[in-house]
Every structure is written in C-alpha cells, then in structure tokens.
Amino acid sequence: MAIIDPSGDPLNTQRGSTTSSTAPDPATYIVDMDMNNFQQILEGSMQTPVVLDCWAPWCEPCKNLMPVLEKLAREYQGAFVLAKLNIEENQQIAAQLGIRSVPDVKLIMQGQLYDEFQGALPEGQIRQWLGKYIQAPEDAPPSPEEQARAALDAGDPATARTIYEQLSQANPEHYDYRIDLAGALLAEGNPDRASAILDGLPPEHRDAPKARGVRARLAFGEEAPDAEELAALAGRDDSEARYKLALRKVADGDYEAGLEALLDLLKTDRSYGDDLSRKTLLRVFDALGADHPLTVTYRRRMFTLLY
C-alpha cells in the first residue's frame, strides 16, 4: 500500500533505517491526526518517519497501547512522529487507509507504508519493530524487559519478578508478561505460584511454546534429586547417577552443563531408560526455546550423533 502525495503519484522509497534530529518539545512529535493536518503529516514523513496509531474510544487494547507508543516517542526524542488517529471522528481517513480493526499501527516513511501491526503488542516487541527502521538515541534508557532480563542474568530473580509484576498489571492483555513472571517466580524458588499463573492463562497462551518452556523447567525442578539424594549419588558413575545429576544441573539453570551431560549419556548408553537421555534433551530444547543458542548448538550435535 502506498500513501498518495498531493499529485496523486505513489511515493516510493527504499526500506532502511532513519535517524532524525531531536525535537525538544514533545508537542512537535506527538500529534492528533485529522483532516486538517492529514496531508501535512504524510508529507512530513518524507523527512521524519511517522508512526500512525489508529484507535477508537471504545477500544480497551487501544488504551493500553497508546501510553506505550507515547513513551517510546518521547524516548526517541523526535526520531519519529507519533500521529494518533481517532477512527470514530475521522472515518473518511480510516476508510482511505483501509482500517478494519483497532488498534492498527502503521509506519510511514517517505510517503510510503513500510510496515504495520495490529493489536496491542508488548513494549519489547514494539521496540524490536521500531528498531528495524529507526535508530534509537544512544542514551535511551533500557526498557523494563531489558532490565528484567539483566536482573535474571545477574542472579537477581526478585527484581525481575517485581518488574514483570508491574508489566503484567499495566498490560493485562499481554500474556507473555505473565509467562515471564512465572519464569521469574520459578527462578526465585516459588514454583507453586508460577504454576498457578500458567494454569490461569487462556488455552491458546497456556499451550504456546513460551509457556511450555516454563512448564518444562517446573517439571525438571520436581524430577531433579534433592540434596539428600545428591549426597547418596556421590561417587557413583553409572547411567542413573549421571542422568539424575544432569537433571539437577538443568533444574538449577546450568543448561549447558546439563545438556553436555545428557549428550554424553546418549553417546555412551542410549538404551538407558528407553532412550531417556534423547527424550530429555528434547524437553530441555523445549524449555529453552527453538531459537536459543544452546538449543541450536545441541540439537545439531544430537542429530549428528544419532544420524
């Protein structure tokens, strides 16, 4: 879809990153769109990208999304213009843009529609979407999601849990935040609450890969040997002991060591537990996610070993 300029010709451009000068006053880059400034805003996209937020007063997801977009617009300091279009009051524009449901967010650059998304995405996903086209200021503060991930990496699940609780409360329709909260609670040593959060998700989110991953981590925690059993395993080097020690490593979050131990057991005693090491490797991959670097590396090594 091309946005038409006043001459009636499509404005074509190459897709790419754009950086704009800083505008000191947010009123210059957070604006309401209507028939009075519609053409002016589109023409302005020749110099500065426009994020067009199409919303309606009766739309609850729109009310969750708009503050996120406004926050990002201020953070980007004028690198893009946030134009807010009330489709109820501007039905002619909405019809011209082909808006069928809201929220509907469009990125317009150099007079052309570059990308769009529908629905109230989480802030982290919107950042990724923007980052494909627009460079954020170097001094932009880390997002809450980045802060939470950094806290988990630093061994501080309590801080991550607090951040995810706040995100979940502020964005009740973003179920990924609830899944992240369950993961933080599990890392903090609260598996019962983590399980309750997962059980309370709508079915389509409860069975999604991300939720299955947290459930797999919950299961590993239940199956892994406790301190007493670990003491009893000390000095043993049989397949059962090696398998249980690998489970403990996975449950403790030492995934690489656990995967290495399971792969070694697969290599030396594949018949143990009716191919249990291979089945458990697949469960760890599910827990980490298909795109995790360890999943990619160890899945390849497992297939090389087997085939």
From TrEMBL:
What biological-process GO terms show up in the record?
Answer: response to stress
Stored Gene3D superfamilies: Glutaredoxin (3.40.30.10), Tetratricopeptide repeat domain (1.25.40.10)
Q: Which GO terms describe its cellular component?
A: cytoplasm
Question: InterPro entries from the entry?
Answer: Thioredoxin-like_sf, Thioredoxin_CS, Thioredoxin_domain, TPR-like_helical_dom_sf
Does this entry carry the keyword Signal? no
Spans annotated as Disordered: 1-26
GO molecular function ontology, one term from the record: protein-disulfide reductase activity
Q: What are the record keywords, sorted?
A: Disulfide bond, Electron transport, Redox-active center, Transport
Task: Domain (Thioredoxin): give its ranges.
Answer: 17-135
Q: Which domain of life is it from?
A: Bacteria
- Protein name as catalogued: Co-chaperone YbbN
